[in-house]
Design a protein that fits this description.
The protein is of the alpha+beta class. The protein has four domains: about 110 residues, eubacterium ventriosum atcc domain (eubacterium ventriosum atcc fold), CATH 2.60.480.10; about 80 residues, no CATH class; about 60 residues, Antifreeze-like/N-acetylneuraminic acid synthase C-terminal domain (Type Iii Antifreeze Protein Isoform Hplc 12, Alpha-Beta Complex), CATH 3.90.1210.10; about 60 residues, Roll (SH3 type barrels), CATH 2.30.30. The chain is built from seven helices and 23 strands. Strand 21 and strand 22 form a beta hairpin. The N and C termini lie far apart (about 85 Å).
């Protein structure tokens, strides 16, 4: 299977698994407590919604639930009451899954009540500290994804801004919920940071994907061994160690020859393979010469090793002439009589310069004079 088709299939399967997992598609998470500053309580005031496009999501967030309580007062709102309100205003969403709290407490902010100032953030973090914060967030998302989609070797890469990095640097508790796809690999999660007294709700986007499968040996392979389909398999590694990248396609491995011994389960890299040598140095080979519909066959001796398509020097067994031919099969090479050849030295064009012509005439006259002198003696 071509690498592009493998990537497309992996992404399609990932999206299908994610949408089929419980709670991912069509999920409404009810908060434990909510505060409003307007006359009517809407669904967006008390819940988080996942699994919709923006237009449908805005419509669902605007569903009216009940009148707001008086200033400084509170009202209880259960999941059942929320479901009834959705069934009246947007019945197509009434069967969605509910998560989070079983009820929410809605309060009306007093007119004079000031907003709580946010905790001061540190100006900047070192690169080491930022890496640690990202590792914490990646680990929290990975744990949540594995609970929903299985204990696979997921690649997680969260996208955090400077404010989020600074906030997490003090070690607050992190709880990941929800999740909706933005594209083939990017997923947006709902992240609760801190305790109940000073909790923040974030929307964190992360890349969630499976690492590519690599080719490993199913058994111990010796140096110079020809690899077949039964000798190798594709696996998804926990982590790839080493500087050389393992091969990711069976087509790149099957039919080639090992250049060194390979242990069972060891990833196979490009330097550990070579094409099969169809012609060996010193071996007698059949040479085919083709020109149009005519084919001539002679024998020669290869002077170098060669794989299919390699150009190797061959010595004729009759004339001892050496020429180059292309490897076409086991102990077979071929040349084309119609191909351009390098002209011989005698056939090279003469330099037409007057100086060279005069010099050649002088040399010819001198040779004739010397010949006459030798004859007279």
């Amino acid at each position: 299977m071509e690498p592009r088709m493998v990537t497309y299939f992996r992404r399609t399967l990932l999206v299908w698994l994610w949408l089929c997992a419980a709670g991912i598609a069509g999920e409404i998470n009810l908060r434990e407590a909510s505060q409003v500053d307007h006359a009517v309580v809407r669904l967006g005031d008390v819940a988080e919604i996942y699994g919709l496009d923006e237009q449908a999501r805005e419509r669902l967030l605007a569903v009216e639930l009940l009148p707001s309580p008086a200033s400084g007062k509170a009202k209880k709102l259960t999941v059942r009451e929320v479901q009834d309100a959705i069934a009246r205003s947007a019945p197509e969403f009434a069967s969605w899954t509910f998560g989070g709290s079983s009820e929410t407490t809605v309060t009306r902010a007093a007119a004079s009540e000031p907003r709580k100032p946010k905790a001061p953030r540190s100006a900047s973090l070192s690169s080491v500290a930022q890496d640690r914060v990202r590792e914490r967030m990646d680990a929290a998302i990975l744990s949540y994804v594995r609970e929903r989609l299985g204990d696979e070797t997921w690649d997680i890469e969260a996208e955090l801004n400077e404010e989020q990095l600074s906030s997490l640097s003090s070690g607050q508790k992190v709880n990941v919920t929800g999740g909706r796809y933005l594209d083939a690999e990017r997923v947006q999660f709902r992240v609760e940071v801190g305790d109940e007294a000073s909790q923040e709700i974030w929307k964190v986007t992360a890349r969630v994907s499976l690492p590519p499968m690599i080719v490993v040996a199913r058994r111990e392979l010796s140096r110079g061994e020809l690899i077949s389909e039964q000798d190798v398999e594709l696996v998804r590694p926990e982590a790839v160690k080493g500087l050389l990248k393992p091969l990711e396609s069976l087509d790149e491995v099957v039919g080639k020859e090992t250049t060194r011994a390979i242990a069972e389960g060891q990833p196979i890299t490009e330097p550990s393979l070579r094409p099969v040598m169809l012609v060996q140095r010193g071996q007698v080979v059949t040479v085919y010469s083709r020109c149009g519909g005519v084919q001539i066959r002679i024998t020669g001796r290869a002077k170098e090793n060669g794989a299919h398509g390699d150009l190797v020097p061959v010595e004729s067994l009759t004339s001892r002439e050496t020429f180059h031919a292309r490897v076409s099969g086991p102990q077979e090479v071929e040349i084309y009589a119609g191909s351009p050849m390098t002209p011989a030295v005698d056939a090279a064009p003469r330099d037409p310069s007057p100086w060279l012509a005069a010099r050649r005439g002088t040399q010819k006259a001198s040779a004739q004079a010397n010949s006459k002198t030798r004859s007279a003696k």
